[in-house]
Structures are given as structure tokens and as C-alpha cells.
Amino acid sequence: MSSLNLEALKKEAAIRAVALIGSGMHVGLGTGSTARYAIEEVGRRVAAGELTGLTCVATSEASDGQARALGLEVGPLTPQPFDLAIDGADEITPDVDLIKGLGGALVREKLVEVQARRLIIIADHTKLVARLGEKAPLPIEVLQFGVQSTLVRLQALGAVGELRRSSPDLHVSDLYVTDNGNFIFDARFAGADLAALERTLKGTLGVVETGLFLKMAERAFVAAPGEVREVVRGR
Ligand SMILES: O=C[C@H](O)[C@H](O)[C@H](O)COP(=O)(O)O
């Protein structure tokens, strides 16, 4: 499938999710190439007068900038629950467990989305997997300070991977730095107990957060040619 067609599918999924937003809602805005379409559609609906009194929190500097440029009201993260958060994902299981963070925004995404009454995922069909880790590595955000020591601890847990670079260009040796000033270790793990893996990783010194989003999402709109499929947790 051409990348142009995939973009059209991402947009279709985004439009379906944004249709769930109503006036006066407090909304979490995701990050990435699919979430961009959702933010664009929110902006369109606000500009058309279809939505009023919306307040938003963005999960990255990029999404914050896009939303503000569209005239959306964007504020800081407070303990106020979100009616809805809409975001993309890198892998989606049939029970809507997720790997997120290939776009580098996993920490802010988790901080926002854990407060969402409804977390709605949007994606094209290439993101569907039977098991997490099938295609994507697991992004783990780690502190810059002492990173080599953190990597030794992660490798001792069985992680195989590498620190993310800022560019796939082999001549660029700079490491990717997140909006929070941290590095990302893209890891592969053997083993099936992801909840246990998450607990172990969160207990590892130097680890800030992981891209495992387990039992957080309510549903995913997954667009394939000719249909947008709803994948619902617990169904
Ligand atoms: O850190 C980034 C996020 O988790 C994204 O939502 C995820 O990587 C999916 O991005 P995209 O829609 O560009 O495939």
C-alpha cells in the first residue's frame, strides 16, 4: 500500500474519533502523524462553530504548537480528568493494549492519557498485531545522566536494543532527545508477561517511563481500505 493511501486511512480514523468530541469537553491531544490529523479535524470543527468551549492539553511540544496555531485553547496538565483523549499507536492488539512512543512522546502521552475517561486510539491497519512486540521495539525513556549504567541494568533484564538516534542517517551520530530532555532506548524483550515487564522496568533505576500502554485504551478506530474497524477492549 502506498504511503499516500496510508495517510488517507490515518485521516479517516482520525475523523471518526474526533466525531466523539462534544462542546465543552476537556480533551487530550496525542502526538504523531495520525494524531496530527485528529488535531487538524478538531481545529476544523472549532473553526466551523461545530464545537465550542473546548479545552485541550497536548502531549508534545509539536502537538501543542499545531493546536495553538489552529486557535485551540491549550492549557497545562492539571489533575482535571479528560472526557476524551485521542492518540495514535505503534502497535495495537485485539484487546487494545498498545506500544507507543516511536514518535518520542510516550511520557507526556501516558501522563495525559491515564487521566482520560476514554482513550481512543486511531491508526491505519498496519498497526494491528496479535502480540505486542511483533513489529515494533518497545521505547523506554531513560535519563541522560548515567545512561550507560541504566543500559547495563536493562540488558541484565534481557533487553536487546539501542539508544534512538536523531536521524537514521548513519553520518549523524546525535542521539534523539525527548521534549523532557531524556534519551529513548528502543528495546526488544523475550517473554509474554507484559504487566510484569512493565513493573520491572518501572522499578529500574534510570528508567523514566515505558511505551507499554496496557488496559488504558477503550477502543481503536483502525482504518483499512473500504472500512474503519472498531477494536474495543473486552469485546
Ligand atoms: O510517541 C509517539 C506516539 O506514541 C505516537 O502516537 C505513535 O508513535 C504513533 O505515531 P504515528 O501515528 O506517526 O504512527
TrEMBL record:
Catalysed transformations (reactions): aldehydo-D-ribose 5-phosphate = D-ribulose 5-phosphate
Known EC number: 5.3.1.6
Keyword annotations: Isomerase
PANTHER family reported for this sequence: RIBOSE-5-PHOSPHATE ISOMERASE 3, CHLOROPLASTIC-RELATED (PTHR43748)
Organism: Deinococcus rubellus
Name of the featured protein: Ribose-5-phosphate isomerase A
Matching InterPro entries: NagB/RpiA_transferase-like, Ribose-5P_isomerase, Ribose5P_isomerase_typA_subgr, Ribose5P_isomerase_type_A
Pfam families recorded: Rib_5-P_isom_A
Annotated metabolic or biological route of this protein: Carbohydrate degradation; pentose phosphate pathway; D-ribose 5-phosphate from D-ribulose 5-phosphate (non-oxidative stage): step 1/1
SUPFAM superfamilies referenced in this protein's UniProt entry, alphabetically: D-ribose-5-phosphate isomerase (RpiA), lid domain, NagB/RpiA/CoA transferase-like
Its biological purpose: Catalyzes the reversible conversion of ribose-5-phosphate to ribulose 5-phosphate.
Family statement drawn from the similarity comment of this UniProt entry: Belongs to the ribose 5-phosphate isomerase family.
GO molecular function: ribose-5-phosphate isomerase activity
Binding site for substrate: T31, G32, S33, T34, D87, G88, A89, D90, K100, G101, L102, G103, K127
Active site per database record: E109 (proton acceptor)
Self-association and partners: Homodimer.
